[in-house]
Design brief:
The complex is a heterodimer of chains A (293) and B (439). Chain A is flat, with a radius of gyration of 24 Å. In chain A, 74% of the residues lie in helices and 1% in strands. With 293 residues, chain A is mainly alpha-helical. In chain A, strand 1 and strand 2 form a beta hairpin. Chain A has a two-stranded antiparallel sheet with strand order 1-2. With 439 residues, chain B is α/β, with parallel strands linked by helices. Chain B is 49% helix and 15% strand. In chain B, strands 1, 2, 3, 6, 13 and 14 form a six-stranded mixed β-sheet that branches. Classes of the chains: A mainly alpha (293), B alpha/beta (439).
Chain lengths: 293, 439
Amino acid sequence: MKRLLPPDLKEAAPFLLPLLGFIGAFVLIPVLGAVVNSTLRDVTFLKSEFAGLGNYAWLARNPAFWQSVKFTLLFVALSVPLQMLLGIVFALVLNEKVPLRGLLRACVLIPWVVPAAVSARIWELIYNYSFGLANFLWVATGIPEEPVNWLGTDAGAFIALVLADTWKTTPFVTVILLTGLSAIPEDIYLQAQVDGANLFKRFVKITVPLLKPAIVVALIFRTIDSLRVFDLNYVLTNGGPGGSTTSVSLHGYQYFLLGDFGYGSAVSVVLFLVALSLTLAYIKIGRIGQVIQ
Amino acid sequence: MRRIPDSLQSGMLFAVILLSVVLAVSCAKDRERPLTFAIGGTPSEFALWEKLMDRFQDETGIEVEVIRQPAGTDQRRQGLVIPLASRKSDPDVFLMDVVWIAQFAASGWLDPLEERARRDNLDLNAFFPGIIERVDLYGGRLIALPVLIDGGVLYYRKDLLESRGLSPPETWNELARIAVDIQNEERTTNPGFHGFVWQGAQYEGLVCNFLEVAGSNNGGIGFSNGKVVLDTPENRVAVLFMHDLPHRFRISPPSVYTEMKEEEARLEFQRGNALFERNWPYAWLLHESRGSAVKGKTGIAILPDFPSGRSVSTLGGWHVGISGFSDEKEKAWKLVRYLVSYKIQKEIALEFGNTPGLMDLYDDPEILSVLPHFSKLKEVFQHALPRPTVPYYAQLSDSIQRRLNAALTGGISPAEALSLAERDARRIADRYEKRSGAP
């Protein structure tokens, strides 16, 4: 068993304490505050009192909550792999000595730099029924009789959100993976080439294992970010049609806005726990992989 | 030697910043706090409010600071809920959407006004009848006063109806029939033309529209023995009709249930792309503004009904209240009285075409000469129906919105949507009502 405290605690303490204080004040206390709040009946117009797991019981019975869970999980399950895949492809291409590489690398970052609410507005203009770009192009093909109401069905609105999110966040994955790629020494590849490994073999046996830490980091960030997706659907669909694109964050926010802080906190705590366990799982899987190697 | 001045410089800069912050804070503390008044809106509306507040200060010597809120209703609500829930003394005075009042009152955020009103002989009969009783009285106490009131109206293209010898429709079926015919004719020159635009996106406006269609069929959100009633034959007819507008009659664009809120509908009509439009009175002056394609071609009418019912408008509007945490309630009351005075209400109307809470203004010749549609609005507001005044209305509305919106997409049937909405609503009422002692 490892010792819990380092032996040189006395010397380390002055250096660690400021950081611990910072984390405590700005991370730990707010999180604990939310947990405490989630056990209260904290509704502006009712007397505040202890409710135990009452908010969680209501959450389990609330169809709107389950609808938001379904949307959020589907959103993560589709958008994260898509972004990872595209991110790897972009990173590999941009890692090669292609012409204008510097310019291309800079361009790839543009969607990531655009604030999420702004990019949601841009996509709103693309999907707009009467004057959106998508319908303009669709009608220009001469196939349809009438324009399409892209956001008008559950599936349509869902796919529209996944596309918008992928456009916006693939650059993030690309950059993380590019950093990982540039850290892989060139001579390993040369050596493998001498040993007769082909391009595919080199990718599977060298690139992927050595890129794994970067992949895990990108996965963690993207998964957590997608789990708490808020601004994109808040602006683009406002959770519609029929509540089908309401994410868990948006659901919690709506209850905060309506003055039910206890329930809103319960939703946040659930989201926090899911994000935490997924993160731990990723790290664990990442570690196991390293141990096997 | 060069490094020392560098760190000295940044140190001095830091010290100067710190010092100025400390100075600013202490100065702010020394000065007497002005009365704070939270309002939201467009930049030009702020200009008017600030002008009015300057005048108020000249007349009373009370300094007022306008706290600018965003234009969006949700953001305005958020901007008030946070300071009030944390019991802050500012804003002292604020405008509330009519549907927040029950929650704010039940939360104990509003200072009762009836004693001051009695003392100062404020004539409550000068406001529209029914509105004070149904909205501004909560638990028998007067907690707000109407500053601006609103109700849904039907805008129509006067030119297109008159050239065919038609008058505005009195029933919903008539509206659909006229819209189908004229849409077909107009489409030959304007392929983007639609018969009827309204608010069907998943938000509060959808509930307003639903209550008007359902209300004109003797339906709506009912309460029977403390239970919410939604799944009724009258409501099914109403939701089916709303569903049919884009899907069967095809006189409303499909975007009506995804994108259309007030502004989207207004712009569509204003570009000359719609025959009928359901909207609030604010759209009138914009339709009549320079550059509008429908300038001089717009008529205004009460909303149609079903043969068995009568026209209904959903009551909207903004009411003023005083924070229960204000430490300047007497000054705040002076401001409230000022805001609901005839002179100021008239100025708000004349300057922006906003519809004030005092009824007599709708007969004022000076106003009618500039805003002739006010004579029609008086009739609308007299029949405007408030939304349920329960403190958990927002939660109720939120669940109704998603079910109705799902019915509009065609994803579920009107009957299914209403029965699901009713089940959701009863659960919500259960959660918030049992222990709140609300009616």
